[in-house]
Records
---
Amino acid sequence: MPKADWDSYARVNAGERFRAQSAAIGSQVTKAIVDEAKIVPGAHVLDIACGSGEPSISIAALLAGSGRVVGIDISPAPLQVARGRVAGRKLGNVEFQQADVHQLPFADGTFDHVVSRLGVMFFSDLPRAMREIHRVLKPGGRASHLAWGPMEQPYFQATIGTVLKLLPELSVPASAKGMFRFGKPGTLGESLREAGFQQIEERVEKVPWNWPGTPEELWAYFQDVTIPLKPVLQQIPPDRPEIRRAILDELQTRYDGKQVNFEAAVVLASAIR
């Protein structure tokens, strides 16, 4: 995925416009990866593809002033948002920098933990990225990844699935299918094994994925931030308003008057260097 796509004005603007809702919808996914990482006081942690700051910020708060958290992302725009989120908070143990997972700017054995929340699916050269993660971990260090499960789950079926049902001539491009590359059980764990990791654990977990707002807000947010699916969304004909109505109808069925409720299927995988 080209870096410019992730730095798009629409995506960054949506992240700012819906800052509170964006944090809320991903809060349980953040909790899941933080719990999976089993971080101890004083740990040095690398968060890969941290975007606008999570789970870096949650980990820094958990460490309560001890240790060090470095959040990296290939795109500079969301990192500016991340820096803004920690400004004014007493979190002197977290920093953000632009870096590429395929060529990490850290010495061998720098970190106790490496985590990535919804980032590993987008590593363009997965074996190389996993080897780099292995390299920067200390012996006995723990790598933890959280990825999307299969596309066939309610959040995506209600949104992009509705589009594809009403416009069967469209299809999901290969680059977007990569979002769900670890939906097949065992594939994420195998990538860790091939990089030299040991004690590999992998499982699918269902976590709340709830949007505190209206269906209309969620659909606006989805269109701007779900970059891999943009090629499909951009092909929706402007003279087909019934498609938008159908999507909103699907989201309405999950709206309780306060939030749109989903349960996300995610893959969690951890391993030891």
---
Amino acid sequence: MSNGRDAGWFFGATAWSFSWDPPYEQALRRIARLGLRGCELIAWSDDILRDYYTPDRIAAFRRLMDGEGLRLTNFFFSLPFRFTPGAATSRADLESFRRGLDTAVALGAKLLTSTSPYPFARAVAPLMRRPTAQEWTIGVEPQQDWQAEYEGVVVAFREAASLADDAGLRLAIEPHPFRWVSCAQALMRLVERTGAPALGLNFDPSHLFPGGDMPHYAVHVAGNRVFHTHLSDNDGATNAHWRPGRGKVDWVATLGALAAIGYAGPLSLELEDAPGASHRGGLTEADPVFDEEMRRAAEFLRAAAASIGRDIA
């Protein structure tokens, strides 16, 4: 299986920044018009996986991407975990995950991206919606078995990675604060516990930085387990996904770290909180100003890459 390091850097983008919810066809056309070479598609839920990604629509997506000169860098569908009230642990829904893999394969992806679960599949408010000046917490129930819960996560991702490998795909986990995989070290611990060669990292500084990881440190920690990227800037305190150059990420150091580990492939722009972006509960379609944010992001990162002697297609 290719390690993803046999090509140069190129820009991609997430469809959901242009249109948070389906349909995504127009989002892909806008990505292509911006001159980007890669794109990402997503299924937020099993319902969307079944009802939106039908065989006819998948075939239409493949024709659209071919016609627009786009490469599907990955398909995002998180391995679901379910929790029954009163239970000691949550349970992974591997049947749903198999449907996600089948969809990724049908779309032509070589990588599936997932988050890890929150402990016991508890609902946790997104970082941007949490209070900044008063206490907030998440409850713990007396019957919850924390050691068994983590063992269940290990077993589930070992099986998920094996299924991905059998399908000719790799599986990249995107760390999020307060989930089982919240940082690069947690990702590497899971890699070691599963022993899965197909398991790696979706590098996203806007989640890693506020979770306590210096972004370029995280790249070095994960090394050749960096399978994909989501690039955006933030303030190191929230998970705001701004245009690179608008926050506190050291982009020269970050791109330098990616070069040092031999990463080559998509630099996927995920500007969820840039002006005009589509987002949950907000704009259905991104405003035209968002296209300019994307252009400026690519221009900034190209200049940062040039300072270390690298080009981005």
